[in-house]
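Lab notebook, page 48
Experiment: co-folding of the full assembly
Goal: obtain a model of how the components sit together before planning crosslinking
Operator: M.T.
Materials (sequences as entered):
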Amino acid sequence: MTAPLHEAHPTGAGRALPNTQQGMRRRNLASVMHTVSAEGPLSRAAVASRIGLTRAAVSTLVDELIRSGLLEELGPERPGRVGRPGSALAVSGHGPAGIGAEIGVDHLAVCAVDLRGEVRARAVRHGANRGRAAGPVIEELDALVRKVVAEAEREGLWPAGLAVAVPGLVARDSRTVVRAPNLDWRDTDLAELLPADFPLTVGNEADFGALAELWLGDGTPRDFLHVSAEIGIGAAVVVDGGLLRGTRGFAGELGHVPVEPNGPECPCGGRGCLEQYAGEEAVLRAAGLEPGEDRVGLLATRAAQGDEDVRRALRDAGTALGIALTGAVNLLDPESVVLGGALAGLAPWLLPSLEAELDRRTAGPACPVSVSRLGPEGPLLGAAHSVVRGVLDDPVAVAERA
Amino acid sequence: MTAPLHEAHPTGAGRALPNTQQGMRRRNLASVMHTVSAEGPLSRAAVASRIGLTRAAVSTLVDELIRSGLLEELGPERPGRVGRPGSALAVSGHGPAGIGAEIGVDHLAVCAVDLRGEVRARAVRHGANRGRAAGPVIEELDALVRKVVAEAEREGLWPAGLAVAVPGLVARDSRTVVRAPNLDWRDTDLAELLPADFPLTVGNEADFGALAELWLGDGTPRDFLHVSAEIGIGAAVVVDGGLLRGTRGFAGELGHVPVEPNGPECPCGGRGCLEQYAGEEAVLRAAGLEPGEDRVGLLATRAAQGDEDVRRALRDAGTALGIALTGAVNLLDPESVVLGGALAGLAPWLLPSLEAELDRRTAGPACPVSVSRLGPEGPLLGAAHSVVRGVLDDPVAVAERA
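Observation: model returned without errors.
Model output:
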């Protein structure tokens, strides 16, 4: 159940590789790609010492990866060193690219990320998607994808796959949005709506946001709880560097953890769920504001201006988050909690009461809470990078499709 | 962070094996052992077809496992079939055994389990351990271990390792009981107290109980939440067939999930923790009973006799469990919840209110709740079987020590 999201990806055969010569070769190709990606540029000898294979074995693997366009030689290392000069290896900036897309409540976004992790093309369209049928939204998204792919191709890249982040529950190992209350979508199969030009993955935005934090964050541990919000409150649990996805793919529903057992009714059927205290709409209501388009911006501006109603509403939301997170921390024992997405922008006013509540209630030393630097960019970047990681995890599959 | 508990075991090198010929051989030996253990007796040809290797490759592996005393040949299969008669293979009933031990609040228990999963020796001592220093308790435990090992050796077995289940928090990858409030132990290193005759693992009783459920339960899924109780309430999260252990090894502290944010104070520092409503002592108090030695037995007897105070106390405890489990199910999306340990014996009176609460509060179809058939035997069996699994996972390491 804990697996990087890209395992649902057609190229992500990483852990399923059999214990045969062929399976071993594929695993070793992946080790070379991951090592060069994480630590490159590196010589063949350095790669060999890092992954514990002979120099000769590594050379064979590297030659194959260069032929497939996944690695590049940067030319001979500077002279003056002992022995035959080696050539430094780097992952290719002209090979496959991961295309990430995000369907937000108020925007659509697409980007292309190369194997080096750089964003090489990007397109955004603002406008409310809430209540619109999936068909026209996906048509617009597809137009953005085509634009970004064309731009990437002009730079010598080719799309290895498309990953779409959605604000809703996605059935495990499927491309079906089971429920996206803030879009009003139900059982929507994106694979039916999007042209099948390259492999497609669909995932929850909180999950992709957490993966972005894992892969791109500054010193993010391999075990953490990532809490984010757009209109609802989402969370994702990262365990040993992989997502905890849940039996149906629905893990991380922090928004429906009971905070006050007899609190207000929630559309989910429960009572006193966290979302009733710390969801954007609940906070706006508590502060006496109308929900508009830039909800987080409005709250952040008012709080910064010293609006006492907004500050009190955010303080109370922080307390509710602290209660729900106490339960989560007791169950999961993560190394840290990371506030991402819209919550990152509201952190200055949420954190004091949140941390006080968590400290007070947690047995032993309290779990540290940090704020994501990626903020609302997380889900889009996480989606694109999940495709890139899929390539690193099984370079053979991608090379065969190229 | 999700890993079978036996990975902390010195023999449990399973996942860390490198992608070399030697690593591949060790992984394939483990595949043969697991296949024969799960489906045996099997012929060499059947094993080969199950694990996807050639018959010749499997024969080499099998010969090595027979020489090491881990597999046995049961003699030729019945004649009349086409081709050279094959010999059926089974895991050995005379090789290594797993020794499991349990330090309970009111008892000590030890057993030996062979590679076939059969309990071959067992010893129990009743008497309160609460408030006793660790030294004398471990001395008594060691005497029971020696007795069980001697009995196992008379049957031709030899101890591959000892795993000890304790009612407290155990630091990850260590043998140190960080905190066992119901024994009044703190930072107790069992490795210092127990003679080092064979490899030692120490784990939380709820974790071992969950593993027993996973390995021995009837149709237990690979993703579930196991809730148990002795005096405190413990839980363990099993994800994809492995324990979710947490950064420090403390995951599964369901007992300190807040159920009523402003409820009674808990010794943990929190307020309104589940243990304040559904712990044995809280239930006894609510029913107007004094805590004695057989607390669960007393509650079960009174409830069965129709004692309305006890039934009401258990009903309320079920409601509190339902609230805490709603949060856990939302976060983890398990396939089921299993009530084990002492809770299994009280299930008839806990379940109705527990399930009603969970159904009412859970988005989508409610998570099914089942009752463990292992009950209080779980932790002891789980401990012994964790040693056995360690042998199956890396037969080479054990054979080298034999």
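Interpretation: Residues 308-332 of chain B form the longest helix (25 residues).
Next step: discuss with group before ordering constructs.
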